[in-house]
Design a protein that fits this description.
Blueprint (H helix, E strand, L loop, with lengths): L2 E2 H8 L2 E3 L5 E2 L1 E2 L9 E4 L6 H4 L6 E5 L11 E5 L2 H16 L4 E2 L4 E2 L4 E2 L4 E2 L4 E2 L4 E2 L4 E2 L4 E2 L4 E2 L4 E2 L4 E2 L4 E2 L4 E2 L4 E4 L4 E3 L5 E3 L5 E4 L4 E2 L4 E3 L5 E4 L4 E2 L4 E2 L4 E2 L4 E2 L4 E2 L4 E2 L4 E2 L4 E2 L4 E2 L4 E2 L4 E2 L8 E4 L2 E3 H12 L1 H16 L2
Parallel strand pairs: 4-5, 5-6, 6-7, 8-11, 9-12, 10-13, 11-14, 12-15, 13-16, 14-17, 15-18, 16-19, 17-20, 18-21, 19-24, 20-25, 21-26, 24-27, 25-28, 26-29, 27-30, 28-31, 29-32, 30-33, 31-34, 32-35, 33-36, 34-37, 35-38, 37-39
Antiparallel strand pairs: 1-3, 2-7, 22-23, 39-40
């Protein structure tokens, strides 16, 4: 789809300097711009590229003074970075604006759904499923019995949503994610063999949650595994049974949270963090990448290491860690000197 500079300026409430009929059909970095592309300049570090870019249209701040000739049509706005972000969102909406029900598919006769549904080919909707308005479900998605999905959700290709899962409004679930698989519950007997403990709870995902590709969220043994409003989960994260993650917490890739742990609000958790089970993590906690958490954590703590300790203590200790060979060499020399009298 092509847009002219005049159309883009109208969307962004901007002013055109140059050719209002200049057309673009793709987005690009300013240093990589080519004919037919749209770019932006907000960081002064990239100013030189404004005079060399081949992009057809460039968004800049109104207060930016151009002191050389440019080959690109300019759109001047109050905040170039924010304006470009608005266009990215607009572009994404257009890109995802699929509609209709593709063939082949299966929708149970007892399932209901609102207006604006897109249901991709080879997708499955089980008994008593309820889906809100303007939901987009891409091909090869499985939705089990009694699942509820709110309005304006996007479920990308290959997602599996097990029975009884409850999903709020404006939720994005990326490809390969599995919602509601059994929790890891097994009971050993006196022979050392394991019997499976039935997992009869569910998963609740509240509004405005984003779930990354190949992330798994297990159903509760009893009750619910709960992902609260505004949580952001990266790719390849494991959330175990009966875990609760507080509002607006963000977790980076490859993190694992063991069963029945409660994580507070507005926490930031780095990649490859391991969190043991049955713990309580407070609000606004920050955990650095590759840390191991084996204890309860109070509000506002910042942790690093495995097992994790205070972030400031870790940094002080690290000075000694990296100098350990030199320190040991000094100690050995002192011991020899003492022993030799």
């Amino acid at each position: 789809m092509k847009f002219t500079a005049a159309q883009i300026a109208e969307i962004l409430d901007g002013e055109v300097e140059g050719n209002p009929e200049a057309e673009v059909s793709e987005l690009a970095k300013i240093e990589e711009g080519s004919a037919g592309s749209l770019t932006f300049l907000s960081n002064p570090k990239y100013t030189s590229f404004l005079y060399t870019t081949n992009a057809s249209i460039t968004i800049i701040n109104k207060d930016f003074e151009v002191d050389e000739n440019v080959n690109t049509t300019l759109i001047k706005v109050k905040d170039a970075y924010k304006a470009f972000s608005t266009l990215l969102e607009y572009y994404n909406q257009i890109k995802l604006s699929k509609s209709g029900i593709e063939e082949p598919h299966y929708i149970s006769g007892s399932a209901t759904y609102g207006e604006g549904l897109y249901f991709g080919a080879f997708s499955y909707m089980g008994a008593n499923v309820k889906i809100g308005e303007n939901v987009k479900i891409y091909p090869n998605v499985y939705i089990g019995d009694n699942v509820k999905i709110g309005d304006n959700c996007v479920i990308f290709a290959g997602v599996k949503i097990y029975s009884e899962s409850l999903i709020g409004n404006n939720v994005y679930i990326h490809s390969g994610a599995v919602i509601g698989a059994d929790g890891f519950g097994f009971s050993p007997d006196d022979k050392g063999e394991y019997s499976k403990v039935p997992q009869i709870g569910n998963v609740i995902i509240e509004d405005n949650v984003d779930i990354g590709a190949a992330t798994t969220i297990d159903r509760a043994t009893l009750g619910s595994t709960i992902i609260r409003e505004g949580v952001k989960l990266d790719n390849h994260i494991q959330i175990a049974h009966n875990v609760e993650i507080g509002k607006h917490t963000a977790i980076a890739a490859q993190t694992g949270v063991a069963g029945s742990t409660k994580i507070g609000q507005n926490c930031l958790i780095g990649g490859q963090v391991g969190i043991a089970g049955h713990l309580t993590i407070g609000d606004r906690v920050k955990i650095q990448a590759q840390s191991g958490i084996g204890r309860d954590v109070k509000d506002d703590e910042m942790l690093q290491g495995s097992p994790a300790i205070s972030y400031s203590n870790y940094n002080k200790s690290y000075i000694h860690f990296k100098n350990l060979p030199q320190t040991m060499n000094t100690i050995n020399k002192l011991e020899k000197k003492i022993n030799n009298g």
